[in-house]
Specification:
Two copies of one chain form a homodimer. By secondary structure, chain A is mainly α. The first copy, chain A, has two domains: 82 residues, Arc Repressor Mutant, subunit A, CATH 1.10.10.10; 81 residues. Helices cover 62% and strands 5% of the residues of chain A. Chain A is built from seven helices and three strands. Chain A has a three-stranded antiparallel beta sheet with strand order 1-3-2. In chain A, helix 1 crosses helix 4, helix 2 crosses helix 3 and helix 6 runs antiparallel to helix 7. Chain A is elongated, with a radius of gyration of 21 Å. In chain A, 33% of the residues are buried. Chain A binds a DNA duplex (30 and 30 nucleotides) through helix 2 and helix 3. Chains A, B: This is PadR family transcriptional regulator.
Chain lengths: 181, 181
DNA sequence: GCCGGTTGTGCAACTAGTTGCAAAAAGGCT
DNA sequence: AGCCTTTTTGCAACTAGTTGCACAACCGGC
């Protein structure tokens, strides 16, 4: 039940059309909660039907026409409610770790290359986060909103750092393993 | 498409009934790929229909009767194929980080308590992993299977370590924030 | 010998997320 | 004006995961 709240957050940060939201879910918010444009359009429809958001009037509404949405008071209230409510951490599901478990049983052939590829991807993501940090969070700014957002970005940075380190370690381990069958 | 392969891996490690699998998905494999018993039973049916696993004969099959499954050669081949195939890392989705983004907009009321709760949960999980490490991976054992499984466990340990550190840092940050509204 | 809890299996209906495709509008080209 | 491409929105059908419940067997106590 997080997608609607991700959208409410994004719209509160800045009212947007479906496509603009889609773009923003490819970065920023999307780094922590990814979504495709179909999910977004469908959810926008639901949220509007529930009275949590509305389209900004302005232009005539027609197919292929930009519709900009903004959050209504009820939407903000719902987001505040959800934010304050306790939630259990979601169960982990990581295909890569699963694959290594499988490789322990059926052999490691082919895995190493993909580990290298993943390492490269995580390095890239880490570099991107670091760039954002430099751009958006210079040392002097510390309004509460900035500190919270910086905290979230920090989690991203530290997670990518973990993956690059772990993958490096894993590849070193593979180098010491007998040949894959 | 990972659940069937998680099950194949578990069954190769040890042939089991549906319930035994369910129990093992509450620990071990389940730490990296969680699944409910309904998912498991359904998938066992599919895998059997596809000829990747079969029930061990032995007892008479009846409702409420333990059925033990084992992996057939086709199943092992499919698992090897999947293990070797390249896969993209899955997009991140973390409700907690999303909540902090939302909190930056609608206020931090109520979040802090839940952060503390999460910290406690992650600490517990970390302690459990460490115990497993001590029990299953004494310093001298280093068969390739053990090294791979240890590597996976290490990822779990490092991830939980990251979360406890990050949550600790987050709570410290909260302490320095103006009062939540 | 049957009664009630536990064990083991499973169906049905639901929510969440993905994939493939298409249609309306806008803008450029000639 | 007519055509082509890109932008923006959206439907439909699918796969994956969750929730709630049901039903049979088995196991103990009385």
């Amino acid at each position: 039940m997080s997608l609607p709240h991700a959208i409410l957050t994004a719209l509160l940060e800045k009212p947007s059309s479906g496509l603009e939201l889609t773009r923003r879910f490819d970065k920023s918010i999307g780094y922590f909660w990814s979504a495709t444009h179909q999910q977004i359009y469908r959810e926008l429809g639901k949220l509007e039907a529930e009275g949590l958001i509305r389209t900004l009037p302005a232009e005539q509404p027609a197919r292929g026409q930009k519709k900009r949405y903004e959050v209504l008071p009820a939407g903000r209230a719902e987001l505040a409610r959800w934010t304050a409510a306790a939630q259990d951490p979601r169960a982990m599901r990581d295909p890569l770790l699963l694959r290594l478990r499988a490789a322990a049983v059926v052999g490691t052939a082919g895995v190493e290359d993909d580990l290298r590829r993943h390492l490269e991807l995580h390095r890239r993501q880490l570099a991107e986060y670091r760039q954002i940090e430099q751009r958006d969070f210079p040392p002097d700014r510390d309004a509460p909103q900035d500190r919270l957002r910086h905290l979230v970005l920090r989690a991203g940075i530290d997670l990518e750092t973990f993956w690059t380190q772990w993958l490096t370690h894993a590849l070193a381990e593979f180098a010491g393993l007998p040949d894959a069958d």
